[in-house]
Amino acid sequence: MGQGTEATVSVRSDEPAWKQRAVERSTKAAKIRAERRVQRFLDAAQAIIAEKGTTDFTVQEVVDRARGSLRSFYQHFDGKHELLLALFEDALLGATEQIRAAAAAGEPVDRLKIAVQLLFELSVPDPSAQRPLFTDFAPQLLLSHPDEVKAAHAPLLALFTELITEAQAAGQLGSTTSPRRIAALTMQTVMFTAQSNSEQAITADEMWDFCAHGIGVA
């Protein structure tokens, strides 16, 4: 190609512009309606869980509470499992934001301590707290759908990786293991210990003391 020569590519559509705009508006409206229906099913399921204190409910109960139809439900969810997974992901995202807010200020290692302790407290089985998505559904999901559990925990893992990276950069951690691997090991230790701590024999302070020694807090 010679100097100063430019190739001009024109984008041509077979559909007139007005038709494209009409289709886009129609698609956007349909998307909004679908999102609202999905949210109604999620809200209905969450309300039932709060009332019963368990994830033991039927799809029909959810449909009735949401004033929807089975046909509409199955347009958006494969079944109860996928509905619970959506609620679990939302709950984990909410917990992540709660931990992020609580650990927003202070020295890096102090922020990490707050995050570990709060994650432990949120993961301890507590019938009065009504967190069956974490205490009942999550352990089952871990065994049956490990890839889905991994995806659901991604925001929480990202937060702990961020906190550990900052603590390492500040020279407050002795471990040279990669922050992401430390974060994964810490989260798994905290959550598994908490979920096995039905009698609350282990405290959040003890959990942090154990983790702090493991990651070499300076």
Description:
The termini are far apart. Helix 1 packs across helix 2. The model is unreliable at 1-12 (pLDDT under 50). This protein folds into two domains: 18-77, Arc Repressor Mutant, subunit A; 80-218, Tetracycline Repressor, domain 2, CATH 1.10.357.10. The chain has helices at residues 17-52, 59-66, 70-76, 80-102, 108-123, 132-144, 146-152, 154-169, 179-195, 204-215. The relative contact order is 0.09. With 218 residues, the chain is an all-alpha fold. It is built from ten helices and no strands.
What is the structural class? mainly alpha
Beginning-to-end CA distance, first to last residue: 62 Å
- What is Rg? 24 Å
- Number of beta-strand segments: 0
How would a crystallographer describe the biggest sheet? none
In DSSP terms (H or I, runs of 4 or more residues), the helix count works out at: 10
